[in-house]
Amino acid sequence: MKFELGAAGMGTGGGADALVLPAFADRLPQAGNVPAIGALAAKLKPGMGERHAVTWLYGVDGRPDVLLVGLGAAADFGPLRLREAAGDAGRALVRDGRRKAGVSFALARAEGAAALDEAEAVAAWVEGAMLGAYAFDKYKSGPRSEPSLAFAIDAADSPACRGAMRLSLIRAESTIWARDLTNEPPNGLRPRDLAERTVERFAGTSARVTVHEGEALERLGFTGLAAVGRGSANPPAFIEVRYDGDEAAPLVALVGKGITFDTGGISLKRDNDISDMRMDMAGSAAVLGAADALVRSGAPVRVAALVPAAENCPSDRALLPGEVIRYANGVTVQVGNTDSEGRLVLADALIHAHRIGASVAIDLATLTHSVVGALGSRIAGALGDDALIQALKHAGEPFGERIWQLPLVDEYEAYLDSDYADTSNISSKGEAGVITSSLFLRKFVHPSLRWVHIDMNGPKESSSARGQHAVGATGFGVRMLTAFVAEAGRGGPPAEA
After folding, report:
1. C-alpha span between 242 and 253 (Å, rounded)
2. Torsion 154-104-53-404 (CA) sign
3. Distance between CA atoms of 37 and 49, rounded to whole angstroms?
4. Which pLDDT score is estimated for 440?
5. Beta strands 150-153; 2-5: pairing state
6. CA 262 to chain CA mean position, Å
7. Cβ proximity of 155 and 165 under 8 Å
8. Which residues are 242's β-sheet partners?
9. Strand 360-365 relative to strand 302-312, pairing
10. N or C: which end of the chain has fewer CB within 10 A?
11. Would you say the C-alpha torsion 306, 312, 318, 322 has a positive or negative sign?
12. Which residues of 144-163 are buried (b: 16+ CB within 10 A; e: fewer)?
């Protein structure tokens, strides 16, 4: 997909075979003021401007066809609505085989709507269109459907707009990489495959990639990862991506759960279909994608993406319920259930985050199903440092990456008591699963380390193609983390509440 700035594609002489108009449901009467529509203005109806509405108006008298995409009510307008409309438009244009489309924001500048910053509009459109037109068809027979669509955006060819377009292209491409990783079938992405793809992605950049494997896991104290991964014929690996774009900036550790497939281990899952357990590494894809965006944009930040990667499988070598693991910080854990393995590998990474000098650690994981029951499929749960959570929430909102803070209730820590070790990896009560899993992780967070845990099990995937999302992995967290780390690099992490 290609993008250009300026009005070259707006008329019939610009080579565009369609004109895209984002429009408000309650501001459509102003459409008569847009010459490109002409007589078609009389056909516009309020429903055509509703959120996610897509309407083709076929041109007459030599005018290009018009694709009207809905923004919803003008009062609700913001960058997210424009990203959604761009995704809906990109998908519709690709499906219809269009080659070049002009984009005009004339109807999105309606009186009563929020101010439309031109550079911000360009960024939102580029990003949304690329993500909306995404498809994971790598394993389908025949040629892959690479979008060959070009957009001519009616915006100034200014330094601000060019800079916004560059950054939005990077964010979208990094999110698409995260989606590709997460969508891979389990035989296409073993732990070693994830490590190799990471090495390949960052080759030739200023980032350094280190892969810890084999005996090095025990030597470095990654005992949880070694225990979880030992049941599989595909050995575990700890992936570390370091980028020092500004030596004076605080080091932010982004920790992502990298379970490339989760059978539950000896505590085998009982679901009829566990094929989506290939997405149990969506957290790792998010932190790697964020690191990719920061490196490629040359952001003046210091970041470490830490990924404990393993397959959780049953075998004669597998981790057994009741085993006790001693971690590098001295904490011993009795394994009550091998299907609660994500917290066991994240514990290693959180200890390592302090070891390498991080001042902030954000971990993302598809950790519990409880969070889906509490917050649904579009919102992730966040627990930990109040100020950091608010900063992350603010960073994610323009991209539709939403989090909601849940409390860390100290009284629930007793649910993790063990008769044989310092703690158990599962709760003795059938309640507060998101909170108790977070309390377990907190035991491996050094007191000097400011920390947030994000349980992203709900928004990791989409069941339908709508707005920015295609069916499958969403790449949730890439853009939120990128914006958060970039802001932290500029002014340091937000002060504690």
Report:
1. 9
2. positive
3. 15
4. 98
5. parallel
6. 20
7. no
8. 208, 304
9. unpaired
10. C
11. positive
12. eeebebbbbbbbeeeeebee
Instruction: Give the distance, in angstroms, between the CA of residue 429 and the centroid of all CA atoms in the same chain.
Output: 31
What's the one-letter identity of residue 382? A
* Number of other residues whose CB lies within 10 A of the CB of residue 409: 14
* DSSP letters spanning 416-447: G--SSSSEESS-SSSS-HHHHHHHHHHTTS-T
Residue 12 is predicted with a pLDDT of 40
What pLDDT does 494 receive?
85
Q: Please give the Cα distance from 253 to 360 (Å, whole number).
A: 6
Spell out the domain ranges in the chain. Answer: 2-155, 171-491
pLDDT value of residue 145: 64
Low-confidence ranges of the chain (pLDDT < 70): 7-14, 29-42, 60-62, 110-114, 144-146, 497
**Tokens, residue 425:** 């990896």
Catalytic residue numbers read 269, 343
Q: Which CATH number fits domain 2-155: 3.30.70.2760, 3.40.220.10, 3.30.70.1230, 3.40.50.1100?
A: 3.40.220.10
Type of residue found at 340: S
Fold of 171-491: Aminopeptidase (3.40.630)
